[in-house]
Amino acid sequence: MTTWEIVPRGPLRGEIDLPGDKSVSHRALILNGLASGPARVRGLLRADDVRATLEAMRGFGVGIEDDGEEVRVTPPPGGLVEPPRVLDCGNAGTSMRLLAGVAAAEPFLTVLAGDASLSRRPMRRIVKPLRAMGAVVDGREDGRFPPLAIRGGSLTMTQHALEIASAQVKSCLLLAGRRVGVMVKEPRRSRDHTERMVQAMGATLRHSEDDWLALMPVDRLDPIDVDVPGDVSAAAFWLVAASIVPGSEVYLRGVGVNPTRTGVLDALEAMGADVQLYPVKGSGPEPCADLLARAGRLVGTRIDGDLALRCLDELPVLAVAAAAAEGQTVIADAAELRVKESDRIARVVTGLRAMGVEVEECPDGMIIEGGGLVGGGRVDATGDHRIAMAFAVAGLVAPKGAVVAGAEAVSSSYPQFREHLEKLRG
Questions:
Q1: CA-based max dimension of the chain
Q2: What is the pTM of this model?
Q3: Marked catalytic residue, from 21, 48, 313, 384
Q4: For this structure, is 313 an active site residue?
């Protein structure tokens, strides 16, 4: 187990090129693996979660070559083939749920497995609609948990009104219905990376006035070269750190600012953070910008509803910002945090209390009394990269710092995190 000891040591200053967006990286590999010809992907996130998707697509027969600068994706000429082995998704829920959609449309057997953490994450939310489409899906406790065994092929066009807003579930169903068409409706709008990319590849999507999203049957997907933007979820740690560490100024280059993902910017704006956005031109369907964050005075706010959904992955580090702010912050409508790589609500509450913060745990969030992290403490981040990085940020302002156990988890999404932290600290 890797343990970090983080203590305050002056302001953060400098520029960073962030790792590639994890969500876009997964989709660039998967969708180009289903396309009609080869494509290049530049800026791919080279981290454990995306590596799981890359190896799984190889298992389907997709040729993938990585020269360190760009990744070349070459679909098999006759279409995907039956994987000769179990496809290991590691700790990546995105990999398992999206690949389940890929597998459901193919007339062969695919088995998807993961590590101990992923094997506890809920899968019935995709299993039930995939079965309704005609796929045969089995798993532990009748598909409640992985591993999943999927025999697909003869699917029919169906409609799915989702109980929760989830880009992973929505994308799974769009991938499963790519040949026959599918309609999906969410209670709230989740991130739309899949929709943007399939439309750029020639698919037809239609939005109805009553919020149904319809994918028309797709005969072929045109390959698309992708420049993966910097990950806004990774940027969130530096935006918060720069905002709460006195004297800090951090410049982040080429960050993806898809409106369905920029809830963290809106939340920080509501807290009074000094974050400026400078649009830049990127290659591909995702909008990009450079971000400049400076230290300032933060105040408490309320993060709920659509805003909570749009910054769900960033809520752990926003909770750290709330602890450093003046006044009370309420985080609500975020029960989905309990079924991520860990129960992030419980982990954040426990970590903040260890650092002297008054915080109340709620079923779908927490209530944080700001005023600063007054002590320092040990936080268990085992298996959860975002908990590790959030409390590393907390250690930058807690008088006694933070001891973060299980810090090796950052390799799943941001292997360069510690390197970038030391760079910004001079």
A1: 62
A2: 0.95
A3: 313
A4: yes
